[in-house]
């Protein structure tokens, strides 16, 4: 366990690099990475946040996740590029294909990050540093974008290492280097320490990772419970998670959307919830699962979020049943303020192959299951919008909502 | 040579090993006339997959109005489109 070698490969400003490489391949004379440029959504639809930025854009103080409008104020000549998820998927797959030449144990952690287990591979490709440099150069030459590679003895440290200095670098962070390389960093740089935790840690007088590592575990546990134990171990470079070549099973399925206008009436909100439910229920049936726990989340135009959930008497995968529960939950939860963001989520999943049939609703369920199955088949064959609910006609709303436009798009997870 | 990135219609052949070679292509000139150009010789060909997108590049020798010129043709595998990349 202790002498594992783990690589963390992280694409430098992924979305932007990929777009730049693609444009260069198609004869563009200008490299987007050399000018202030960002990948961001459509301002008019309020999906206007920065998804990725070039290094020159960073010099203007533009941050990932900030609204496009404020970014344009900081740099009026900013080049804004719309996202292209199928290109990202293609680039990501190209990278994984190259990684497979080096090790069989690869975990695609998100679209632009991979973990690779390089333990006992020295005889094939040389020392870890040699192999990493070779890999970095090969990705740059063959795929046209740069990556940072972090090398260490576990996933957490490898991930921290790849974040050091960008772009196009290889960094190591082994246990004996923690004190020198990781402890001076600010505590917010640590994986799993987000905005809320950072503020709380600052109140406790903890500002660097080193200070966190040397705080007593009891104190952290008292303030943060199990999360305190987790970040304490992370600050000390302790992590025993394995490189998992296949994704762990989903605990729940959910979709959410930011609406392009503020929703003020319940009926519009329910239509949007219906469009989200359609997507969620289809995904649920695709996964051959049933749900028992349904929740709805609402974010108001004042950015106040809350959610409400309900446990069902029996598991279901029927769109109508899920939607009825969603409406019920929405009516109970909504405080009649303007809505900016809506989400639908189902969890407490179980397999749909063996299930307890209901004595009272058996006939009705059978009918609805058959209906859903037919709709799914039609949508699979003729496209998702081939059959839609009549309530969406002339409503100006999307009949199916939520999710990234591509199938198989690997989403970021917070679990190593 | 200059990058032109002009889409072209192409006649090409595949040999039994699956190697693809261009024979002649047609493009629209500035005065909107179609012009067919025969490939005299293929100097070399390479395959790249920048951004995970496989593209084959052919460096060719062609005659235009009796003048011998070099050009670079590209074939994008995913879309099956040919382009006159550089001339």
Description:
The complex is a heterodimer of chains A (416) and B (87). Chain A folds into three domains: 1-174, 2-Layer Sandwich (Alpha-Beta Plaits); 183-235, 5' to 3' exonuclease, C-terminal subdomain (DNA polymerase, domain 1, Orthogonal Bundle), CATH 1.10.150.20; 252-392, DNA polymerase, Y-family, little finger domain (Dna Ligase, domain 1), CATH 3.30.1490. Chain A starts with 5 loop residues before the first strand and ends in a 34-residue tail after the last helix. Chain A is globular and about 65 Å long. In chain A, the strands form three sheets. Chain A has a five-stranded mixed β-sheet with strand order 5-6-1-7-8. In chain A, strands 9, 10, 11, 12 and 13 form a five-stranded antiparallel β-sheet that branches. In chain A, strands 3-2-4 form a three-stranded mixed β-sheet. Chain A has 15 helices and 13 strands. Chain A is α+β, with helices and mostly antiparallel strands and 416 residues long. Chain A has helices at 14-25, 55-58, 68-74, 85-99, 122-125, 128-143, 155-162, 178-182, 195-203, 209-213, 217-224, 226-235, 266-286, 319-333, 362-382; strands at 6-11, 37-40, 50-53, 79-81, 106-110, 113-117, 147-152, 170-172, 252-263, 289-300, 305-316, 339-347, 350-351. Chain B is mostly beta strands and 87 residues long. Chain B has strands at 3-14, 20-28, 34-48, 55-64, 67-76, 81-86. A six-stranded antiparallel β-barrel of chain B has the order 1-2-3-4-5-6. The A-B interface holds A 18, 21-22, 24-27, 29, 87, 90-95, 142-145 and B 3-5, 48-53, 55, 83, 85.
Give a quick precis of the structure.
Chain A is an alpha+beta fold. Helices cover 38% and strands 20% of the residues of chain A.
| Secondary-structure arrangement, i.e. CATH architecture of the largest domain in chain A | 2-Layer Sandwich
Gap between N and C termini of chain B, in Å?
A: 5 Å
Structural class of chain A: alpha+beta
CATH superfamily of the largest domain in chain A: Reverse transcriptase/Diguanylate cyclase domain
- By DSSP (H or I, 4+ residues per run), the number of helices of chain A equals 15
Instruction: Report the order of strands and helices of chain A.
Output: EHEEHHEHEEHHEHEHHHHHEHEEHEEH
Say how many strands of chain A there are: 13
The largest sheet of chain A is: 5 strands, mixed
Poorly predicted parts of chain A: none
Question: What is the assembly state of the chains in this entry?
Answer: heterodimer
CATH topology description of the largest domain in chain A: Alpha-Beta Plaits
Distance N terminus to C terminus of chain A? Answer: 16 Å
| Average pLDDT reading of chain B | 90
The largest sheet of chain A has its strands arranged as 5-6-1-7-8
């Amino acid at each position: 366990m202790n002498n594992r070698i783990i690589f963390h490969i992280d694409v430098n400003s992924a979305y932007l690099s990929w777009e730049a490489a693609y444009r260069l391949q198609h004869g563009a004379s200008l490299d987007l990475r050399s000018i202030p440029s960002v990948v961001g959504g459509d301002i008019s639809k309020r999906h206007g946040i920065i998804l990725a930025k070039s290094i020159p854009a960073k010099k203007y103080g533009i941050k990932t996740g900030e609204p496009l409008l404020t970014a344009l104020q900081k740099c009026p000549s900013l080049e804004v590029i719309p996202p292209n998820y199928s290109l990202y998927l293609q680039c990501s797959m190209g990278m994984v294909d190259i990684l497979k030449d080096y090790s069989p144990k690869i975990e695609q952690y998100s679209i632009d990050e991979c973990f690779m287990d390089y333990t006992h591979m020295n005889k094939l490709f040389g020392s870890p540093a040699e192999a990493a440099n070779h890999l970095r150069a090969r990705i740059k030459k063959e795929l046209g974008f740069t990556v940072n590679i972090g090398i260490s003895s576990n996933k957490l440290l490898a991930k921290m290492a790849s974040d050091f200095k960008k772009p196009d670098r290889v960094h190591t962070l082994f246990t004996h280097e923690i004190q020198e390389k990781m402890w001076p960093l600010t505590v917010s740089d640590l994986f799993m320490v987000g905005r809320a935790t950072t503020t709380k840690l600052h109140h406790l007088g903890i500002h660097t990772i080193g200070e966190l590592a040397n705080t007593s575990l009891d104190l952290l546990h008292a303030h943060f419970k199990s999360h305190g134990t987790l970040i304490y171990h992370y600050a000390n470079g302790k992590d025993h998670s394995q490189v998992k070549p296949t994704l762990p099973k989903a605990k729940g399925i959910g979709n959410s959307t930011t609406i392009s206008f503020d929703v003020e009436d319940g009926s519009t909100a329910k239509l949007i919830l219906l469009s989200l439910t359609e997507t969620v229920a289809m995904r649920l049936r695709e996964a051959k699962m049933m749900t028992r726990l349904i929740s709805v989340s609402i974010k108001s135009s004042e950015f106040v979020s809350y959610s409400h959930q309900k446990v069902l008497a029996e598991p279901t995968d029927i769109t109508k049943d899920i939607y009825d529960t969603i409406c019920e939950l929405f009516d109970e939860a909504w405080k009649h303020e303007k809505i900016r963001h809506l989400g639908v989520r189902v969890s407490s999943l179980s397999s749909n192959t063996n299930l307890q049939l209901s004595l009272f609703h058996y006939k009705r369920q059978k009918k609805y299951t058959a209906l859903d199955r037919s709709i799914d088949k039609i949508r699979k064959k003729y496209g998702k919008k081939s059959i839609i609910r009549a309530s969406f006609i002339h409503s100006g709303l999307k009949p199916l909502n939520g999710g990234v436009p591509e199938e198989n798009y690997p989403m970021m997870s917070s679990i190593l | 040579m200059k990058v032109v990135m002009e889409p072209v219609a192409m006649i090409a052949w595949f040999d039994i090993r699956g190697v693809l070679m261009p024979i002649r292509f047609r493009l629209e000139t500035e005065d909107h006339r179609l012009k067919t150009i025969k490939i005299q010789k293929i100097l070399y060909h390479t395959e790249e997959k920048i951004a995970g997108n496989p593209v084959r590049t052919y460096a060719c020798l062609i005659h235009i109005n009796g003048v011998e010129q070099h050009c670079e043709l590209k074939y994008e595998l995913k879309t099956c489109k040919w382009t006159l990349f550089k001339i």
